[in-house]
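[job 0417] fold request received: Interleukin 1 receptor accessory protein-like 1b
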Amino acid sequence: MKAPIPFVILLHTVVVHCQKVVSKRGSVEGCTDWSVDYLKYKVLLGEPVRIKCALFYGYIRANYTHAQSAGLSLMWYKSAGHGEFEEPISFDGMRMSKEEDAIWFRPAELDDAGYYSCVLRNSTYCMKVSMSLTVAENDTDLCYNSKMRFFEKAELSKSKVITCQGIEDYIQPGAEPEIVWYKECKPKQWRQTIERRRDTLSIKEVREDDIGNYTCELLFGNFVVRRTTELSVTAPLTDKPPKILSPSESQMSIIELAIGSPVNLTCSAAFGYSGDVSPLIYWMKGDKFIEDLDEERVQETEIKTIREHLGEQEVSISLTIDALEESDLGNYSCYVENGNGRRQANIQLAKKAELMYTVELAGGLGAILLLLICLVTLYKCYRIELMLFYRNHFGSEDIDGDNKDYDAYLSYTKVDPDQWSQETREEEHFALEILPDVLEKHYGYKLFIPDRDLIPTGSFTNDHFQDDTRLLRAYIEDVARCVDQSKRLIIVMTPSYVVRRGWSIFELETRLRNMLVTGEIKVILIECAELRGIMNYQEVEALKHTIKMLTVIKWRGPPSNKLNSKFWKRLLYEMPFKRMEPLSISHEQVLDVSEQGPFGELQTVSAISMAAATSTAMATAQPDLRSTFHNSCHTQMRQKHYYRSYDYDLPPGGTLPPLSTLGSQHTYCNIPMTLINGQRPQSKSPRQQSLDEAHGNNAMLPLLPRETSISSVIW
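[job 0417] inference complete; emitting structure tokens
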């Protein structure tokens, strides 16, 4: 007898607690009434149904067995409507029976519809709750009643699981139910992406044709139980605000109307699927809503749905004014909103002006238009000439880069003499003679030409001549320093430059590459030929995309050499501007015609560089000096030397002073590697020997690729 006591105390506590909670609801005849439970029972005619007393499933913390042991009895009543007269239910034990805390109908009939109340009470306590039961027949020619369906939504292209709901009472514990699925009450051959698992139907990727009614069917004794779910498919949830279709969002729409005329402004917008939220679209005048204007003449219509598909809608709303007045003029805004943002489109109502178009007005407008066309045409055809004219007469010199020593650095790849052709001769003549001569002597620019001006600044020892890598590194560092001291970088792009990847030095040196990528130096690319047929032309395109500040100018052969050609005007426009008269050419700077080399009339060459070149020529002419060349170099230099017109003196004894007497500066001596290594040249053909002799005796010609692996042919 002691076992039930704790439960009685617990139940007593629960009942008291519940009475306190519902004291505001009141009680009927001393019994706490929980009204109608939220769970509503719906069943088709002829199907079994079980109504459970909801008190044991959410109102008290005791089950039916505990309630019985505590001396509480459970009674059932039925009424036609909530609050109406209730009469006790007498169970026949066959079609309608009481089983513990529930009532079973096997099967349900139409007269069984109504409210069923279960009352749990004893002499002291009483608690009551009602449950509703609806019994209906199937719709005509269908296996379900449209008012008793479950509803599910699925987003397009996403997965969805449809559950056979409300069949828990018809499945024996531990048993696997045999459920048959139908669509629109008909058997269906399901596609592979739809799987049937126990009491669910799983769709891996929802399609638009999956919309419809899905019915699950199972047997319960001699009865058939069916549950139907209507599946609707929507577009994926949008993450963008609505889009206004009209009027335009990007600009103000101005509508001119006469005073007194009717006005009808329509705003239409497209809304993506946002769940069950209705589209929000409305008009405002300034910062006031239309309903706040207190003008009966100005009205806003209801929102009209133009079209709808998978939850996406196109809607419109109109603003009407019966008769336009002066006070109605102004700005009107159409707003559209959803949970992702708001957009607006503006319309300005303006008074229509009566313009009197006269012959004078039309003629004036025509003249202005004609003049404008002429000016635009003139600018298009002579833009560079106009810019140069303005810069020469009204412009100021470039102050950007005043601390730099050179106006431009010239990069060019020489062609081997044995590969010369008419075209390559013209290109070399242009790059080494015409281009420097015109820019320096005619326009007064100061160019840096590596073959002529490169004087290394790092210290050097005899051992460095035996280390190709260090010499190459020193050369690259000096090139980077010289490019950094130039305002422009001019690249003469020839087929030889492309084949030999003449831009490689700008990729090897990090400083040079950063200057091109960041736009620190402006690059002028002169294309001397059609390069598209060359094997690695795609690398040229990649180089162009790498350079941030790039100008490409076409050199079209000898016709472009004339000073009045478009080529020079375009090149001059891209060069830094300096107010300077063309330089006069003195006798000291001009080379004798018979002595002109590949540079033509160029500026003086540094004494140190020339002296090193002179020593090279001497070493080439006298093989007996090769063994001592690593420890000696010519120091009997004059202050200034000119290309192919310098003098040198051979010290007594036929030997050269040590290289250390040159100071801390090292030079790039134009010496074939065969001489530096103390080797004798191999036997050659007469033609090849004559070319090598000419090259060896030329103090300033760069080394050929077969002569050195460290002296670059890219200048």
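[job 0417] notes: The domain at 402-456+471-574 is CATH 3.40.50.10140 (Rossmann fold). Residues 1-28, 457-462, 582-715 have pLDDT under 50 and may be disordered.
[job 0417] exit 0
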